[in-house]
Amino acid sequence: MIPTRAQRPLGALIVCLAALAACPAGAVDPLPSWNDTPAKQRILSFVAKVTNEGSADFVPPEARIATFDNDGTLWCEQPMYVQLAFALARVKTLAPQHPEWRNTQPFQAVLEDDMKALVADGKHGLAELIAATHAGMTSDQFEEIAGDWIAAAKHPRFKQLYTQCVYQPQLELLDYLRASGFKTFIVSGGGIEFMRPWTQRVYGIAPPQVVGSSIVTEFQIKDGKPVLMRLPKVNFIDDKAGKPVGIGQHIGQRPILAFGNSAGDLEMLQYTTGGGGARLGLLVYHNDAQREYAYGPAGGLPDSKIGTFPQSLMDQAEKSGWVVVGMKDDWGRIFPFDPQ
Amino acid sequence: MIPTRAQRPLGALIVCLAALAACPAGAVDPLPSWNDTPAKQRILSFVAKVTNEGSADFVPPEARIATFDNDGTLWCEQPMYVQLAFALARVKTLAPQHPEWRNTQPFQAVLEDDMKALVADGKHGLAELIAATHAGMTSDQFEEIAGDWIAAAKHPRFKQLYTQCVYQPQLELLDYLRASGFKTFIVSGGGIEFMRPWTQRVYGIAPPQVVGSSIVTEFQIKDGKPVLMRLPKVNFIDDKAGKPVGIGQHIGQRPILAFGNSAGDLEMLQYTTGGGGARLGLLVYHNDAQREYAYGPAGGLPDSKIGTFPQSLMDQAEKSGWVVVGMKDDWGRIFPFDPQ
Asked: Based on the domain organization, do B194 and B312 belong to the same domain?
């Protein structure tokens, strides 16, 4: 944990309390990949108090809602969002049917692996890529396309399936929360239908508990079959101030725990910890270039357009008592696979 | 069940199969308020086959999704939608703060109990009523307002709380499905935030499993508190072709069982039963004026603007093998309370 002023005075007391409440002698550690630091103790202590019926902070199971960002919080988001890698791969797959793409941006940039030109094309280019690769088919077809791709696609550095490049400490935390009566949700800026084909298998999170960005779908009878057709039009962006809105729409309850890793998660953490009673806000801080990546100007690390963690977020975390989980010190293990 | 040609030949066989598979001698009847008719047997037989691992129609628990319309399917929708009764009551409560309403439609009509003028004002009037009574407060405030009202408001004919005017056979069916590994969802044209405060208590359906119509909400920091503010603007209408879209957005899985009662449920039943494998579509038919209400031109009953069941829906039910549950013959009991 990156210690903040607000957290230091309570640290020792919380360690004792959590040790008493959540880790009786001989009990199995529910979070073995978490180092024994204040971050871990804050989590154990929080879960202990909200699940203890005798505690003033007790929360009944039906209100134990925990929301997790996905990119950079549950799985690796560098060197690019996995969904962007999917979109780029999809352009290459579809290119033979679109000869015009060889001379049209942003497709030409993708086909020539010219990331500089792609970035120069900006948001407009991204929207065109999404429309060309994520729309024009039924939801069932897209589920199959995305599911097939993710079943085989590998991370360029770790040479493992992307779905293996998930954080082992977070898998343990999700299990621990569910074993403690929590319902766990993903609340991600990523595409809701890109995630749903595999979140049950990878995170134990069923499709209805995935909240994300979406494009418009339309009910149609196509060749006699009732389908949802995906249209090239944005429906909802589940990022920043959209995250509490997405939570309101999909969950209808204010979470008591939220875990993010970037400026896109600020409002979700504000909304979560701004409710009454016991609340816990957490942020992954990527400061481990050796085992994963190190980025975030708040810690004097290189800036990144992906998963930006600005100084203002660090300030807000300190002010609000959110736990900043430093990957380097707080996590004993990063991925389920053994490092190469 | 209103027998249709498609269902008749199989009736006797299904009764036998279901009796063997789902009701072994001495077992407790999971649906005691359902008469022993083909409708009940269709349900028992369906659940038996999708839960039997040895069956060709076996469906794993994570894919056992059942969706229920609310108004007219789970609770009484006559003489008017409960949410409309809420809106009208709310206008009267708020009237002292709005002296101008005494001379402005549709408010004047509400305050003077002039239903004829209200109906004449049509959709525009309804939109104004919703804006005045459902927007301009936070989601938390609306939850409290709706929750407080529903805790006390009574049905004009049955003199019971609206939340008591729910169908006992459906409460048993929801329990039976959940005991059989199903996830149960509401997919209603009603307001999502109007239903969520009480669906867990009344139906055992948690807020995240409620899909409904919604207005736009916006994340705001108000008086230092992070809130979702409700704006007077429609976000989504979860009716007709909107129901499969709402299912796609919220559930992300095609249901295997859907239960409705009106033309607004047609597309949900098409979408549900149009998937591969075993599927069951059901419709409540309100033909019991003595114990509840009788309406629906398809059966030669009076037409109703609420819960319309046209001949075209009856035709589609027959063509598709959907079960039409006739309240009069298929349900031994209607409500949890004893009739007056």
From this structure: yes
> Which of B64, B203, B219 to mutate to test binding with chain A, by most A CBs within 10 Å of its CB?
B219
Cis peptide before B106 (omega within 30 of 0): yes
- Together in a domain, A282 and A270: yes
CATH number at residue B12: 3.40.50.1000
Q: Are B174 and B190 part of one and the same domain?
A: yes
Q: What is the pLDDT of residues A293-306, one digit of tens each?
A: 999 888 788 888 88
Q: What is the ipTM of this complex?
A: 0.91
Strand A257-260 with A65-68, pairing? parallel
Do residue B252 and residue A210 have CB atoms under 8 angstroms apart?
Answer: yes
Same domain, yes or no: A65 and A88: no
What digits encode the pLDDT tens for the residues A185-202? 999 999 999 999 999 999
Q: What is the DSSP letter of B158?
A: T
Q: What would the two tokens of residue A207 be?
A: 């499709």
Number of structural domains chain A divides into:
2
Which chain A residues contact residue B210 at CB under 8 A?
A: 252
User: Does the beta-carbon distance from A274 to B225 stay under 8 Å?
Assistant: yes
Per-residue confidence (pLDDT) for residue B2, from 0 to 100 = 60
Please give the full DSSP string across A41-91, using - where no structure is assigned: HHHHHHHHHHH-TTSTT---GGG-EEEE--BTTTB---SS-HHHHHHHHHH
Q: How far apart are CA A13 and CA A15, in angstroms?
A: 5
